[in-house]
Amino acid sequence: MLRRLLGLLFVFGLFAGEADAQDRPLRVLYLSQSVGFVHETVRRPSDGLAPSERALQAMARDSGAFTVELTQDARDITPARLADLDVLVFSTTGALPIDQPTWATIVAWIDRGRGGFVGVHSAADTALDFEGGRQVYVDLIGGLFDGHPWTQGTPIRLANLEPGHPLTAMWAAVTDYAEEIYQYSGFEPGRVRVLQALDMTAGPLRRPYPVPVTWVRQVGQGRLFYTNLGHTPSTWDDPRFRRQIVEAIRWTGGRTEAAAAPNPTVQDAAALAAFAAVEGLSPAASPADPAATAAAVRDLQRLHPDKHDGDPTAWDQAVARIRASFR
């Protein structure tokens, strides 16, 4: 009888511990180290914190959802430190001083559902300082900086591909904005769920291929969120962006639920819509094989004349083939 009572008390203690863990604020470590280009959002003045650091502190205070520690040295991320964290937030550039064993520990920490990862803007312009570090980093985050045709202040239109999703519900179906927008290499639509993308029906610079802006993915039992937004301090001050980051932290920290399964069909439709809009095709036009045509549309990024010393030959041929596939 005593053994049974002790067993019940043990189980009750486990449930109580889990409940306490769910009630406490999430523990966040924000890394804003610049090994490459230094964004104004992460530049610390001589007497204080960077704009993004102050913004994240305000988000923590106002939401009550998390506490945040700040660092600009990736060497602060150790296995012992991870044991006391729930979410890592990166706004970084260049090859971070993280060695291979430490990175393996970070990925395992996420994969086992012990922690989550939030990447902001230049987190996609980041690598790791060991051989093969760039590729394993891309394998986690889902894409690598491949230029930013949309430079700081360029008017853009954001399309919300899932307005009902908890991580994009704070944004309208379309939003006219001004931001620096990346395009990516190593991006695989079948691995991520894209939530926001450029709307190529508007803006002074339009390309006939898709440009994802925000995505999520499941990493084993853990979660990853990435958004290209966050280049300028004004974005960090935007209430919609702040709410999105708070919700991303809550979701990656396991406090909320949201769909994360890849949505390649939605992404294919966005790719075809981008091509049709820029090339002046009828919105009713569609290719015989949407998936194959969408893949060809994505490949246009690699063929753009800017990447071939201004030579438009391959680009023009590919665009003509894609146009011919629409009916």
Structural topology:
Blueprint: H1 2-23, E1 26-31, H2 51-63, E2 66-71, H3 79-82, E3 87-90, E4 94-96, H4 100-111, E5 116-120, E6 126-128, H5 133-141, E7 144-145, E8 155-160, E9 174-178, E10 184-185, E11 193-198, E12 212-219, E13 222-227, H6 233-237, H7 239-252, H8 264-279, H9 290-303, H10 313-325
Parallel strand pairs: 1-2, 1-3, 3-5, 4-6, 5-13
Antiparallel strand pairs: 7-10, 8-9, 8-11, 11-12, 12-13
Helix pairs in contact: 2-7, 8-9, 9-10
Folded structure, characterized:
This protein is an alpha/beta fold and 327 residues long. The strands form three sheets. A nine-stranded mixed sheet has the order 2-1-3-5-13-12-11-8-9, sandwiched between helices. A two-stranded parallel ribbon has the order 4-6. Strands 7-10 form a two-stranded antiparallel sheet. It contains ten helices and 13 strands. It has helices spanning 2-23, 51-63, 79-82, 100-111, 133-141, 233-237, 239-252, 264-279, 290-303, 313-325, and strands at residues 26-31, 66-71, 87-90, 94-96, 116-120, 126-128, 144-145, 155-160, 174-178, 184-185, 193-198, 212-219, 222-227. Helix content is 37%, strand content 19%. Strand 12 and strand 13 (222-227) form a beta hairpin. The longest helix has 22 residues, at 2-23. Helix 2 crosses helix 7 and helix 8 (264-279) crosses helix 9.
